[in-house]
């Protein structure tokens, strides 16, 4: 076979292309190594289900660990001292978000008008409380109580009622400059929203800038075929992010594909909160709701510190 000859110009052009490709590859690698412009938070459900004034010292504790902010549990609303909480957050020089739920008897998708009204009133109360505490977002499965299942999939009427209730909630949130981030859960905790695709479809039908999608890697690990692809699909509509291990233990110690997850977050130009969520042991109602029947970490402080170190490494802030 005759030897194929390459001209000097062709050789130089090929070399230039190779050098250019290598430069582009190095530039991309360098860009990926740049610290992500996100804030790292810790959900206080790791320590407590309610948040009365007596537990406000958790705020400086989390700040001293090195977190950028705390996530306040909006479960028992009446015990929260908003003014004292805001002072503690400001004194600690950190930010804050809130995680909230709808309680039994409150639902945006119920066929009972009184439950839908109670759901909307709770949503508005959570938004107002978040603003008073100094939070910038309220996140959670804010459409129906966790664990209340119907033994079937959602109906078209429930979908329409969800749109109506969330639109009203988002309009209220806009007045307080609060983002509402709707979290989908796994099939064992809700039947209304189980995937990022469905949650994104709902958000798009509501069509309000103060309503976004929350992604939690614990739920995504169960329901998504590809968590990274789900993150890319939601893209700019991600309003909040929970970095949770597949067993609710310390992030980085389980089966969540973290490298792919953080690559997808970078590609989505995500720049809001990345918050660790796990749950306090020994609180019966909380552990029952989260179906935690065994020890999943050595200590809450250990999970908080090790989890933060992992997030700093993954976001390029180590």
Secondary-structure topology with pairs:
Layout: H1 8-33, E1 39-43, H2 58-65, E2 69-74, H3 82-92, E3 95-100, H4 113-133, E4 137-140, H5 156-176, E5 179-183, H6 196-206, E6 211-216, H7 217-223, H8 227-234, E7 238-242, H9 258-267, E8 273-276, H10 284-289, H11 300-314
Parallel strand pairs: 1-2, 1-8, 2-3, 3-4, 4-5, 5-6, 6-7, 7-8
Helix pairs in contact: 2-3, 3-4, 4-5, 5-6, 8-9
Verbal overview:
- This protein has one domain: TIM Barrel (Alpha-Beta Barrel).
- The chain has helices at 8-33, 58-65, 82-92, 113-133, 156-176, 196-206, 217-223, 227-234, 258-267, 284-289, 300-314, and strands at residues 39-43, 69-74, 95-100, 137-140, 179-183, 211-216, 238-242, 273-276.
- The protein has an 8-stranded parallel β-barrel, surrounded by 6 helices.
- α4 runs parallel beside α5.
- The longest helix has 26 residues, at 8-33.
- The chain contains 11 helices and 8 strands.
- It is an alpha/beta fold and 318 residues long.
- It is 45% helix and 13% strand.
């Amino acid at each position: 076979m005759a030897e194929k000859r390459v001209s000097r110009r062709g050789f130089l052009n090929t070399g230039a292309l190779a050098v250019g490709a290598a430069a582009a590859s190095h530039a991309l690698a360098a860009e990926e190594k740049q610290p992500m412009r996100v804030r790292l938070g810790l959900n206080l459900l790791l320590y407590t289900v309610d948040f009365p004034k007596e537990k406000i010292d958790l705020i400086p504790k989390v700040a001293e660990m090195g977190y950028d902010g705390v996530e306040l549990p909006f479960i028992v609303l009446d015990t929260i001292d908003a003014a004292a909480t805001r002072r503690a957050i400001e004194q600690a020089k950190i930010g804050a978000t809130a995680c909230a739920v709808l309680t039994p008897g409150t639902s945006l998708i119920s066929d009972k008008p009184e439950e839908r009204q109670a759901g909307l009133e709770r949503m508005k109360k959570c938004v107002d409380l978040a603003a008073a505490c100094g939070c910038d977002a309220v996140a959670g499965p804010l459409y129906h109580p966790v664990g209340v299942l119907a033994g079937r999939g959602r109906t078209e009427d429930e979908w329409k009622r969800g749109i109506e209730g969330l639109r009203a909630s988002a309009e209220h949130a806009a007045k307080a400059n609060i983002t509402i981030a709707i979290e989908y859960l796994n099939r064992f905790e809700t039947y209304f929203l189980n995937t990022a695709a469905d949650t994104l479809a709902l958000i798009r039908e509501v069509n309000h800038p103060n309503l976004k999608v929350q992604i939690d890697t614990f739920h995504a690990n169960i329901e998504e075929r590809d968590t990274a692809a789900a993150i890319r699909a939601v893209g700019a509509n991600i309003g909040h992010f929970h970095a949770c291990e597949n067993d609710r233990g310390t992030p980085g110690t389980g089966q969540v594909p973290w490298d792919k997850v953080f690559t997808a977050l970078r590609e989505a130009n995500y720049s809001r909160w990345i918050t660790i969520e796990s749950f306090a042991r020994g609180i019966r109602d909380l552990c029952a709701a989260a179906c935690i029947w065994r020890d999943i970490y050595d200590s809450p402080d250990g999970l908080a510190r090790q989890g933060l170190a992992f997030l700093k490494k993954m976001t390029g802030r180590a």
